[in-house]
TrEMBL record:
Residue span, VanZ-like domain: 12-131
Comp. bias regions, Gly residues: 148-158
Name of the protein: VanZ family protein
TM ranges: 53-74, 86-105, 117-135
Domain of life, per lineage: Bacteria
Region (Disordered): 142-182
Keyword line: Membrane, Transmembrane, Transmembrane helix
InterPro entries, A to Z: Teicoplanin_resist-assoc, VanZ-like
């Protein structure tokens, strides 16, 4: 429970910060054209030289990378499919990035860049792959030491270990053949 609440608080704080930074109007004399050609912006960044390209690409990767860790934290489940978790997290990160880019069309001085969506999504995926599997394994070991994780399907309803759940309370009772009110 504490992990989920902490993850949610940090997620909201991060999204507010990213929204404020990404949607802040820029006072510029001219604005570049929107980039709707995939990888054209990355080629232009690489043409600026290695140091500037690394700074711009790293900025794109790191902007939404915390979502790769915070979204699974909000979910709070420890025993889930790695690929399913990665897919859900990357899809949500891509949607947040796309929404941010679309909202920028209404902000003076901001332009749409399709490569930003790619870099932001890649950053979410890399952060998830680097942190989440190891963190979940560590939390599962800690739960097993405390007597909480005793295998799939034992005390957890659908076979999921939820952070902060207590298997000592037993399974949720199920009443068969109860008609649904119409």
């Amino acid at each position: 429970m504490v992990v989920r609440v902490t993850g949610f608080v940090f997620l909201v704080a991060h999204l507010l910060l990213v929204s404020w930074v990404g949607l802040l109007p820029r006072d510029v004399a001219w604005v570049t054209a929107p980039n709707t050609v995939p990888l054209a912006g990355l080629r232009a960044d690489l043409a600026l030289g290695p140091a500037e390209a690394a700074r711009l690409i790293a900025g794109g990767l790191l902007l939404l990378a915390p979502l790769g860790v915070l979204l699974p934290m909000c979910e709070g489940r420890l025993d889930v499919s790695r690929w399913g978790s990665l897919t859900r997290t990357v899809a949500a990160g891509a949607l947040v990035s796309l929404a941010l880019e679309l909202l920028q069309t209404a902000v003076p001085g901001q332009v749409v860049d399709v490569d930003s969506v790619f870099l932001n999504t890649l950053g979410v995926a890399l952060a998830h792959l680097l942190v989440v599997p190891a963190a979940r394994a560590r939390l599962r070991r800690r739960a097993a030491r405390q007597g909480r994780g005793q295998g799939r399907g034992r005390g957890f309803g659908r076979g999921r270990v939820v952070a902060g759940s207590d298997p000592a309370q037993g399974r949720t009772p199920r009443i068969p053949r109860v008609p649904i009110a119409r």
